[in-house]
Amino acid sequence: MKPTNFKNDQIIFAASVPGGFSTVPEDDFRSASLANQIVSEAGVGGLTPVELDKLLAGKLIGVSPSMGLFSHGIRGSSTPKDIESALQAMYLTMTQPNKRPESFEVLMERIEAFVKNRSLDPNAIYSDRLTEINTKNHPLFRPWTTESLKEVDPDKALAFYNKIMRDAGDLRFYFVGALDVETMIPLLETYVGSLPTTDNGPPKVGKVRMEFPGGITKNVVQAGQEPKSTTTITWPARASYDEMEMFNMRLATDILEIRLREVLREALGNTYGVGVGYSYMPPYDGYATTVVRYGSAPENASDMAKRILEEIKKFKAEGPTEEEVAKAKELEQRAVEKGLEENGYWLASLQTLGLLGWDANRVLARLDRIDEVSAESMHKNFKLYFPEDNYTVITLMPKESTP
């Protein structure tokens, strides 16, 4: 529990544990990945969502299961006076999901309409192709189609839901906000302490073999008519969960973004914006990437990619300037200081640390690690990233355009 005084009417909470969809056989993945929505549509405790909303009328409560590829759990929000009702709703959500075939049919009709509309969206087409290339068409990341929707079995979905939600023995619960510890303890003993457990042992992330494509891959996706392009350059990154290495990786991308914004937007003036990021999937430690994404006029996309790759090569050879590092450190310090006064930041941080098995007190040390960064240390770390012989360049172009 993390009592705060940031908002006197807010308590947010979450529980999570490694596992998620990765734990099911490949043939059942489609069903498992919709378990969340199927239960949310059907309701819990014998009540439909509409009936539950009426029962909780006047209370500021939100509770929903949380399921991802490599972790699962539950999350919610409440006010101090409604926290017991929120915990009751959490208990029902985890232990008493409804089975309502009629709600499943309604849900699938809605999802099918969404899938059909999405297949016409140029940005969705581009995103799907980008994912396909960067994961080597891994089955767990393939987009939904009207055909793949037919693979969903509501009974398998509910069985998966019950299996993971009715085993709370290894869930880590986090409560942040305007809470009183003495008031919370008996409530947690009642509603968290009574959640069912099994003797299955600690859950584990499923054996998912994800690979970034080797060599250099370039691909153009032609979709839509709007006269602009989007380009994404992606590199494989080290996926070791060492806290300082992860921090250095993220800060390196921040510094590179500062450099590229100056070079591309201010110096050349023909890009719509550039962003640089580092992506990983805790607690899975087998896949991570660094990404540069920018928008430009279609006729400039190829030249921009060349300029970015040249700048990164120069960055690795010479390192960042003291000014660039100082600016990135200042931005990071402001972000951390702001975050430390927000309930959402604390909850997300505690969850991530818990999934990685790290000490929760590390949140308080985040300002200290900024002081350890220098231009020299960032140059040393930057040499480990952005391999010159292994990356992908995927560009979205309007139809009948050439890069």
UniProtKB/TrEMBL annotation:
Indicate the segments forming the Peptidase M16 C-terminal domain, all copies: 152-330
Top-level taxon of origin: Bacteria
Q: Which Pfam families does this entry report, sorted A to Z?
A: Peptidase_M16_C
For this UniProt entry, the molecular function terms from Gene Ontology, in alphabetical order, are: metal ion binding
Q: Which protein is depicted?
A: Insulinase family protein
